[in-house]
Amino acid sequence: MKTLRQMGIDMDEPDPGQRASSSGPISAKTTFADYLKMKGEAYQNEVLGPGRAELFRAGKLTPRDLVDQSGRPLKLDDLRAKYDGREFKQPQGKFTVYDATAPRVQPDVSTPARAQAVKIEESIRHKKDETGTLIGTDGRVMFQRSGTPNSVRIPGTVLDGGQGATFTHNHPGGTSFSVEDVSLAAEYKFGEMRVVTPLQRFSMQPIGDWPLPEEVESAYNAIERSAMLDVHNMVTGGELDARFKGAESMHVIWTRVSDLLKMKYTRENS
């Protein structure tokens, strides 16, 4: 492979005028990259070598990148190591749910209670305060109340009649269930506990019987630290945007708690 000096062409912009080349006179303003592009693939392969020419045509380096300060060609292996790995892509993991362009699915409206829940969730998911709604198996709204950005208080007399019912509410902060949410569902034996956020829906159901509320709290406390550490490592490892650390931590906690206590937990973009 020839050096650029041997080609009679500088890599830098020359003075106005013309100069000679193997193809005859060319503009003095013609750069070596422009000249290579004009000459075509066969000439590029001859001058640069097939491997270097491939990198040049792929736009991964310029002619100046191909040589050292003396104009001598750099080794192809060194070029590939330095320039052929400069493409950055979004990690292909389970965190695309936080991407605004992530695919969305149609929510499940297969029962009267779920159809009513989805309808209510669409009306409350962007509210700044929590709104809690208890829905009967027939889809009838049994009770609804709004509270603060962090909580909503439901009377005990209402909860006492909630066995088998669906409870849904919004979380303005964008996270999954609190430990109080799931403990309450277990205590009053709801058919389903739901949370909606601006982007996602969460559901928790028993598989058979609910665990005891104290079992929920104990499992949550046992798993919380390790789950949060794992998500922290995902952030520091570049797998997760730090903005979603809190939301993902809660999701990981409930994924593990539900596996441990035999509950059905889902998160979906819908």
Key structural traits:
2 domains, 8 strands, single chain, two-stranded antiparallel ribbon, alpha+beta, 270 residues, 6-stranded mixed beta sheet, 14% strand
Strand content: 5-15%
Q: What's the Cα radius of gyration?
A: 31 Å
Number of helices: 10
Low-confidence stretches: 7-15, 86-95
Domain module count: 2
What percent of residues adopt helix (DSSP H or I)?
25-40%
Structural class: alpha+beta
- Globally, the shape reads elongated
Mean pLDDT: 83
What is the CA-CA span between the terminal residues? 58 Å
* Neighbour order of strands in the largest sheet: 4-3-5-6-7-8
What composes the largest sheet? 6 strands, mixed
Strand element count: 8
Element order: H for helix, E for strand: HEEHHHHHEEHEHEEHHE
Q: What report would you give on this structure?
A:
The protein has a six-stranded mixed sheet with strand order 4-3-5-6-7-8, with helices on both faces. A two-stranded antiparallel ribbon has the order 1-2. It folds into two domains: 80 residues, no CATH class; 176 residues, no CATH class. A hairpin with a 5-residue loop joins strand 3 and strand 4. The protein is built from ten helices and eight strands. Helix 3 packs across helix 4, helix 8 runs antiparallel to helix 9 and helix 9 packs across helix 10. The radius of gyration is 31 Å and the shape is elongated. With 270 residues, it is α+β, with helices and mostly antiparallel strands.
